[in-house]
Automatic annotation (TrEMBL):
Cellular localization per UniProt: Membrane
Domain Sodium/calcium exchanger membrane region: from-to ranges: 33-185, 229-371
Topology term for the membrane: Multi-pass membrane protein
Transmembrane segments: 7-26, 32-52, 64-86, 98-120, 132-152, 164-183, 225-244, 264-284, 296-319, 331-347, 354-371
Composition-biased stretches (Acidic residues): 200-214
Organism for this UniProt entry: Nocardioides caricicola
Keywords: Membrane, Transmembrane, Transmembrane helix
Protein name: Calcium:proton antiporter
Source superkingdom: Bacteria
Main location per the UniProt record: membrane
Annotated region described as Disordered, given as residue ranges: 200-219
Length: 373
């Protein structure tokens, strides 16, 4: 059934409901109880937006699907960062903290969870090392260019880029992301397709999703359903941007109230926007499509840097105050260890549960050190 033909569910109702809440709450500073209620609608808008991105992605096929989902999530991330930078009082390092958190969550959290699930269910998690390695290589280059180099440049004091350096980093990030997308979708698309087509059960039998035409592939949604999901996706993104603006003060107040460092706001943003991708990656790994999970993980990390940094660079023209991008020493150590572990994981093209567990321990270390630096 199409999205228009089935009964209404929460993914259809959430975007317009969030718009209604946005209209009622715009321009207000809600109290704690009201903020929690608005937060529920914000999370619902995020989850529904990514769900509709998945529907559209299913229509266009893999790896376009993973790409579309990553871009949709990055739009949400940029919206949250910019609204908080405009509304907050101490946001000079918010972009850095959010982007770094997104990298750690995707490279260690999403990838580690997918590898662990795939290995536990099918003994080994299998993927294409050529495509995955290319994605990881691009993530490493983007992270080094935008998050590590500012710590060592000398044109401006502190871990900041000068205007010319920020412009170059933004252009280089877009160029790297653009050439990777071309490689993923045109030049070497086959490197990013699942190693085994279809859903494989524990006894090795193929368990296909709904396949009404009997062609051996899950049937994509109709054009009508895809267009409806595209419209709801746009509505959901508008709602997310607006509700993020309304929730900006409560988020910062909550982090301060529980005694966490202000930098933990970036972790909250990254956890919020990457939750749907984490669920999607885990579901793909459970169907023995670890390649799709890794496309989501590394694609999100890449989009988080390659699209967020240029957007923040443009926004900084109108924003007051410095823009801190250089990582702290502890963060650089975590990034370096994560890169080494990821390379050792990707090279063989298959993974045991050990690799997934190591990645998840690195994520736990990042979260703990974000709370207790």
């Amino acid at each position: 059934m199409t999205i228009l033909g089935r009964r209404l569910d929460w993914t259809i109702l959430a975007p317009p409901a969030a718009i209604v809440v946005l209209v009622l709450s715009w321009g207000r500073h809600p109290g704690a109880v009201v903020a929690i209620g608005i937060g529920i609608f914000l999370i619902g808008a995020v989850l529904s937006a990514v769900h509709h991105a998945e529907v559209v992605a299913h229509r266009v096929g893999e790896p376009f699907g993973s790409l579309l989902l990553a871009v949709a999530v990055t739009v949400i991330e940029v919206a949250l960062i910019v609204t908080l930078m405009v509304s907050g009082s101490d946001t000079s390092a918010l972009a850095r903290d959010t982007v770094f958190a997104a990298v750690m969550i995707t490279v260690n959290g999403i990838a580690g969870l997918a590898l662990l699930i795939g290995a536990l269910k099918y003994r080994m998690a299998v993927f294409n090392p050529e495509g995955t390695g290319a994605a990881l290589m691009t993530v490493v280059a983007l992270a080094a260019l935008t998050l590590v180099l500012p710590r060592f440049t000398t044109s401006t004091p502190g871990p900041e880029f000068s205007g010319a350096q920020l412009t170059f980093a933004a252009i280089a990030s877009l160029a790297l992301y653009g050439i990777f997308v071309f490689t993923q979708t045109v030049k070497h698309r086959d490197f990013f397709l699942p190693v085994e087509e279809g859903d494989t059960t524990e006894d090795g039998q193929v368990d296909w999703p709904v396949d009404e035409d009997g062609d051996g592939h899950a049937d994509p949604p109709s054009n009508r359903a895809a267009l409806a999901s595209l419209f709801l996706l746009l509505v959901g993104l508008v709602a997310v941007v607006g509700l993020a603006k309304v929730e900006s003060y409560p988020i910062e107040d909550a982090v301060e109230a529980i005694g966490f460092p202000h930098s933990f706001v970036g972790v909250v943003i990254a956890l919020l926007v990457l939750l749907p991708e984490s669920i999607a990656a885990a579901r793909a790994a459970a169907r023995n499509r670890v390649q799709t999970s890794l496309n989501l993980a590394y694609g999100s990390a890449m989009a988080s840097i390659g699209l967020t940094i240029p957007a923040i660079a443009v926004a900084s023209i109108w924003l007051d105050g410095p823009l801190v991008l250089g990582l702290e020493p502890t963060q650089m150590v975590l990034l370096l260890v994560s890169v080494i572990v990821a390379v050792l994981t990707v090279v063989p093209g298959r993974s045991k549960s050990l690799q997934g567990f190591v990645h998840l321990v690195l994520l736990a270390s990042f979260v703990f050190l974000a709370i207790k630096p």
